[in-house]
From TrEMBL:
Gene3D superfamilies: 3.40.50.1360, Winged helix-like DNA-binding domain superfamily/Winged helix DNA-binding domain (1.10.10.10). PROSITE patterns: HTH_DEOR_2. It holds the Pfam family HTH_DeoR. SUPFAM superfamilies: NagB/RpiA/CoA transferase-like, Winged helix' DNA-binding domain. It comes from the Bacteria. InterPro entries: Carb_Metab_HTH_regulators, DeoR-like_C, DeoR_HTH, NagB/RpiA_transferase-like, WH-like_DNA-bd_sf, WH_DNA-bd_sf. This is DeoR family transcriptional regulator. Keywords: Repressor, Transcription, Transcription regulation.
Length: 253
């Protein structure tokens, strides 16, 4: 198979899995490691992929990946994380659900929950949870980010600061090896920081691809999170830090 036929398949696999690895691609296409490295180098030089150790990922750099593309990255991993998180959300609470495709996946599993007061700055989540006739949904004000249905800015902050949440579910665009949650939009960062301060407990839902990405602005440390739901084992050093911070780490099945 010539390179121009492999390239779209490689990009599709990177989107589905979050990362493509040289050895796995060589086996998949029945070609040499050197051939795959050349393919990846070309895709990276064209800006379609970004090299990481042993493979490549969909690039993000200083701007986030497009919403429709983010939704499909590691979809099975996000679904398993959502299932694990949803099991830990009780009925009869005030719940905040934030921006992100992982939080949206978790929201889809709350349609049978009862007596929730759900506050969100994510129009996609509001549309999902309006089907839960046994719970109420409050949408914050804010500036609409048309690319993904997020509400940010001062009106969103003011709504959030008027509530005390029993539990908040948040996401992030990237995580570094020190355990810092990272994102791209300053206004979104301020909203997330306010959510954490107003919540009795905070859960983070983030799949393993977040450790492969970079983002320029810090939201907070995992020390501010009560439970981190993810789909792959963390590095030992970060596991030890989470223990020191009393941050529980839950792996989806």
């Amino acid at each position: 198979m010539v390179n121009n036929l492999r390239s779209p398949k490689i990009i599709k696999l990177a989107t589905q899995r979050g990362i493509v690895r040289v050895e796995e691609l060589a086996e998949f296409f029945s070609v040499s490691l050197q051939t795959i490295r050349k393919d990846l180098n070309k895709l990276c030089s064209d800006g379609q992929l970004e090299r990481v150790h042993g493979g490549a990922i969909i690039p993000s750099h200083i701007e986030n990946i497009k919403y429709e593309q983010r939704k499909s990255i590691n979809l099975l991993g996000k679904q398993s994380i959502g299932q694990e998180c949803a099991k830990e959300i009780p009925n009869d609470i005030c719940l905040f659900m934030g921006i992100g495709t992982s939080t949206e996946t978790a929201a889809k599993l709350l349609l049978a929950h009862k007596n929730l007061l759900i506050v969100t700055n994510n129009l996609n989540i509001a549309n999902i949870l309006k089907k839960n006739i046994q719970s109420k949904v409050v949408v914050t004000g804010g500036n609409l980010r048309k690319s993904d249905g997020a509400l940010i800015g001062q009106p969103a902050l003011e709504t959030i600061q008027n509530f005390k949440f029993d539990l908040a579910i948040i996401g992030c665009s990237a995580l570094d090896t020190q355990g810092n949650m990272l994102d791209f939009d300053t206004q979104e960062i301020l909203v997330n920081q306010s959510i954490i301060s107003q919540a009795e407990k905070t859960y983070l839902v983030a799949d393993h691809t977040k450790f492969l990405r970079k983002a320029p602005i810090k939201i907070a440390s995992l020390a501010k999170v009560d439970c981190f739901f993810t789909d792959n084992k963390l590095e030992r050093r970060l596991v030890e830090k989470c223990k020191l911070w009393s941050t529980e780490v839950r792996y989806s099945k």
